[in-house]
Amino acid sequence: MIRYHVKRNSKSRNTLRYLGVFLFVFGAWLVYLFFSGMASTHVIGAILGALIGLYGGYLFIHTFEEDKYDIDYEFKDTELVIRHHRGETVYTYDQIDDVSLIVPENEMLYSLILIKAGRKKYLIPFSYKKEACDAIYQHLTARVTAKDLLAEIREDDKTRKNGV
């Protein structure tokens, strides 16, 4: 079993929340100016205010997602356990659709692993931890590709039985 902890900065999360609230209020103020008659000839300003307000709401709402908080990953032999602030999520390796390794030009600085399981995506960053990234990626690909190979073998057997 391999454990890995991803620490998220709460100051960044709070900054995005404050920025979202500010943009929402600013956009609402621009729309208010248009509908109150103070700037009734500035339709473009009202549209821009509505868009700014919607973007502020988007920023605020998405700071509450589970990937914005600290996450603990446990890579077991048969399953992947993800512990986040709302509880824990357990995926068997059959449920994982894709595992991708993202390596930049200077791979010693950072690497990323992207795990896709259904509609959820988990991006695991590794800063100055190339060895840990390689170990986890090998662990994941060994289990996920084994599942894919078994599925291909079963499909080949079915087509051979139906074709012969």
Number of helices: 3
**Multimeric state:** single chain
Q: Report the uncertain regions.
A: none
> What is the mean predicted local confidence, pLDDT?
85
Describe the structure.
There is one protein chain. The protein is of the alpha+beta class. Helices cover 49% and strands 26% of the residues. The chain is built from 3 helices and 7 strands. The strands form 2 sheets. It has a 4-stranded antiparallel sheet with strand order 1-2-3-4, covered by helices on one side. Strand 3 and strand 4 (87-92) form a beta hairpin. Helix 1 (10-36) runs antiparallel to helix 2 (43-62). The mean pLDDT is 85.
Brief rundown of the structure:
The protein is built from three helices and seven strands, in the order βααββββββα.
Keywords:
164 residues, 3-stranded antiparallel sheet
Secondary-structure blueprint:
Elements: E1 2-6, H1 10-36, H2 43-62, E2 71-75, E3 79-84, E4 87-92, E5 98-102, E6 110-117, E7 120-127, H3 130-163
Antiparallel strand pairs: 1-2, 2-3, 3-4, 5-6, 6-7
Helix pairs in contact: 1-2
